[in-house]
Amino acid sequence: MSQLAYETHVPATIDAVSKLLQLSGVTVLSKPAKSSLPMTDTRGVIAKRDDATIVAFAGTDPLHLLNWVSDFTLGRPQEAVHQGFRDAAAAVWNDVKVALAAARDNGSPIFITGHSLGAAIAVVIADLARQELKLGNAQIYLFGCPRVGRADFVAPYNITFGATTYRLVHGADIVPTVPPPLLGFHHVGGYLGCASGAKFGATPPAPGSDEPMAEAGLGEQLRGLFVGFSQNARKDTLGALTVALPPGIGDHLPDRYCAALTPAQ
Fold first, then answer.
1. Strands 41-49 and 52-57, sheet pairing
2. Strand locations in the chain (E)
3. Which DSSP symbol is given to 162?
4. What value, to the nearest 5°, has the Cα angle with vertex 55 and ends 252 and 188?
5. What was the pLDDT predicted at 131?
6. Is the backbone of residue 104 left (phi > 0), alpha (psi -120 to 50) or beta?
7. Is 120 helix (H, G, I), strand (E, B) or coil?
8. What residues form DSSP beta bridges with 56?
9. Can you tell me the distance from the alpha carbon of 161 to that of 246, in angstroms, rounded to the nearest whole number?
10. pTM (whole model) above 0.90
11. SS3 for 114?
12. How far does Cα 259 stand from its chain's mean position?
């Protein structure tokens, strides 16, 4: 669903995959975002599968990765939530709020998910639902999520959603290392990691973990962007080209996360 959210500008793909996944009532989110991050709009999908409501958000264009990683690392004024993430979530909150309120009132299972910047948006959306809708029951799955807020954001979030927030990190993905804890930012939920090109295991997540962290500081974080090669999981031509990406970027691609979630044959 997180990967499908990247296809919001291709209606035919949304329709085809929705049929494949047996989704109904699909709503495409694509709203201009006034954000401090280098992004033009917030994209996502809202859909139903059986009686469950699923909200998924896309990240930013991988070609802009270095720009917004830089913004994450530099940080913002001392606010509870990174302003860029807050602005991106605010762009679609009115639409998402209606869907989540209806699911809450119907007692429907709720899933909120996203990849990269989309994962950060998912966290802020879940917290807005906690505050404004008094939502206390949702499953949140985060793929390659950056640190979203400081302690006064993380603590109340984790009280409500910490046990049902699953934060997955593949290999040397650089994005979950920013913004760094030295700026006061922390991760939410439970941490699940796997090696580059490997599969995520079925072990319980580690609650309250701030991993991954580059202990040598910013220099070590940036090293992952330029040194070595990533593990390719795709067989097509474009996939073959991505092997040239350094691990910090290559391991962040959404198809690498999909491959790491696919059961071994």
1. antiparallel
2. 24-32, 41-49, 52-57, 110-115, 139-143, 149-150, 165-170, 185-186, 190-194, 206-207
3. G
4. 55
5. 98
6. alpha
7. helix
8. 45, 113
9. 34
10. no
11. strand
12. 16
